[in-house]
Every structure is written in structure tokens, then in C-alpha cells.
Amino acid sequence: MCAIIQYMKLTAQIKLQPTSAQANALTRTLEAANAACNHISTVAWGMRTFGKFALQTLCYQDVRATFGLSAQMTIRALAKVGDAYKLDKQTKRTFRPLASIAYDDRILSFALPDSSISIWTLDGRQSIPFVCGDRQRQMLATRQGESDLLFHRGDWYLLVTCEVEEPEPLDVDGVLGIDLGVTNIASDSDGTHHSSRTLNHVRYRHRGLRTKLQQKGTKAARRRLKQLAGQERRFARDVNHTISKRIVATAKRTKRAIALEDLKGIRTRVRARRPQRARVHRWSFFQLRAFLAYKAQREGLPVVLVNPRNTSRRCPACGHTDKANRPNQSTFRCVSCGCAGHADTIAAENMSILGRAAVSRPYVSETARPSRQGQAAGLQPLQ
User: Fold this and answer.
1) Can you give the residue ranges of every domain in the chain?
2) At residue 34, does pLDDT exceed 90?
3) Potential cystine with 82: which of 52, 163, 267, 337 (Cβ 3.0-4.6 Å)?
4) What's the distance, Cα to Cα, between the start and end of the chain in Å?
5) Which residue from 30, 22, 7, 35 is spatially nearest to 145, judged by alpha carbons?
């Protein structure tokens, strides 16, 4: 029987290096395409017709004649409007002049040996060089589907959809539990802690600096605010990438699956004091979980979600659960058997125990519902 090859979709970001004339052509192309999208959206809203194919019947000839777009670029504009109304049809959609536009193989092609692309613009086809890292270049060999042309802070990028072959699932010998938190971004069941001290310091410094500049309100202050925009977010993203790489590397080296706590809805459940609210609401746990999921998938490691209820209060040795087991944020001491340790490590150990049950349960079928025991423990595979 032939093995079924599975693929995962990843995005490779490459930076374009157009000349000034080419950059001008790209700018006018984006402006024309988004103006066409606004025109199509007006027609869709007025006619209460939101399907891509129905809009094509209504607008195709008019858009081509009015905005000077090619046939395929017109199709992409119609698709963009149709996709925008899929979320809901209660609000009229509008598009920024330089919002991204999707290109497909009919209006975009790659010359990988020359590190260049051929892209359609209002001035005709343009050959534009690009730069990217080695990993992105390897991914471009498996390019599949659309690519988004993006203008951001004076630079041009292409976000290219690639299909990467998934490796065969590894035979794991255990489960590495991961506890996510605000004081420690991540703690594993081996006792390794990834502190948030540096990240919180950067967040605190940026928050104070933004407050001072906004109060000042001068032209120079506004210019400085524009320069600072996104720095904190990019730093946090880099920290999450680094932590997720280390966790996946540890799990792969020790041949273990990864168990994470399911924190969906935590921001609405948690009650934080006023000084702590900024830290809690800037807690990027979902981004870290997403990074761990796709990095583990690329290595063939399973990832499961477990119910976090009482994981920091339950003793992994005797199973006794009591609020008194955790006298403070960092300390765990079981009042029944005396087992003690760092509270985050204990929580990760409990998730490792719960995750082991999910990873090792027998395979039944792709559509089989989880057992009652699995439902009670809150175990579910991460898709």
C-alpha cells in the first residue's frame, strides 16, 4: 500500500529590490487594484450581492475599462472583495490604497537561479530582484498557490505560500510538559525556565516612552512614535520564536511529544489587579503556541492540549489537589506528602502526565470521538 504524503502550508517572506521606476509602477498598481476593490465593494453593497462569481458578472467589464487592470488582476480584485464579505455582510468593506494584493501564477513568476521575479504592473511586466534567507529559498522550491504583494514602511515584500512535505511521525518515548505563564513565558517538565524578565522590561520601557511622547505631542514626538511603532511586537515575536525553537529541539532530541495547556478564553476568566492588567493583556501565549505547533509538525512531533485546571495545585507524586499546595507564585509544597518544587515545573510535570495519556491512547479511527476519560481530562490533539 502506498504511503500518503501530507503537506503543511508555510509562508516564505522575501524582500523585493525594485528601482525607483519599478517601485512607482508597483505603487500605482496597488492603488489601482484597491480602488477597483472599493468600486466592486460599493456595487456589492448596493446590490446586496457578495458572491465572487455573481460580482464578476456585474463588474468585470466595467472594472477593466475604468481602472486599466489586466484580466487576471481584475479576477484577483473580485476575489478579494468576495473573501472580505465572507466574514459577515453587515458592514460595507473598504480597502486602503496600498493594501496588499494577491498574485497568482498568471501574473507572477519566479526565476530562482537569478533571484528575481516577473510581476505584472500597470507599466507591463517588470523583472525585479529579491533577497531572502537560505530557509526561505528552500521553501520557494515548493511554492504553491497565491503570493501577496505587500508594501510596509517603505519596503516591498512578497508573502509566498509554500507547501512543505511533512516528515513521518516520530515514535515518541514520553511527553514534555510545557507550562505557559506571565512571570516565566514557558517552563518545561525538565525544570528549564524561560523568564519573561527581559521582555517585560522592554514592554515597560516602551509603554513609558509612548506615554511621554503622546503627552508631548510635538512633531518630533510624533515622528519618534512612528519610528517606535512595531518594535515591541517584533521583539516579543523574536522571543517566542527563540523559545519555541529550543523547546522543539529538546523534545526532538529526547524523542518526546509536547503537551501544552489550553488557555483559550483565559483573558476573560482571569482577574488581575490594575498594575498587572497591561502585562496580562500583552501576554502572547497564543502566538507561542502557534509557533510550537508548526515547528513540532515540521519535525514529526505530536502536540496535545490539556486542560490547565488545577495543574499548579495538584501534586504529581500523590495526586493531592489543594490551594494550600501553592503558598506563593513560585513555590509548590504538597501538604499531604511533602513533595516540593518550583510551581511552574510542577505544573509542567502534571501536563506531562495528562499529555502522556493522550499520546499513548490506542488509535481507533480518524473520526472517532474521544473517550469519556479523555474528555474529562481535557485532552485533545492540536490540529
Assistant:
1) 7-165, 174-195+239-381
2) yes
3) 52
4) 26
5) 7
pTM as predicted? 0.77
| CA–CA dist 106, 257 (Å, integer) | 42
C-alpha cell at 164: 512543505
Over residues 100-109, the pLDDT tens digits come to 999 999 999 9
Q: For residue 203, count CB atoms less than 10 angstroms from its CB and return exposed for 0-12, middle for 13-18, buried for 19 or more.
A: middle
Q: Is 61 exposed, middle or buried (0-12, 13-18, 19+ CB in 10 A)?
A: exposed
Fold of 174-195+239-381: Nucleotidyltransferase; domain 5 (3.30.420)
C-alpha cell of residue 154: 517603505
Between strands 193-195 and 184-188, the pairing is: antiparallel
Three cell numbers at 14? 522575501
Residue type, 234: R
- How many residues are present in the chain? 383
C-alpha to C-alpha distance for 327 and 193, rounded to whole angstroms: 20
Looking at residue 332, its amino acid is F
* Amino acid identity, position 139: M
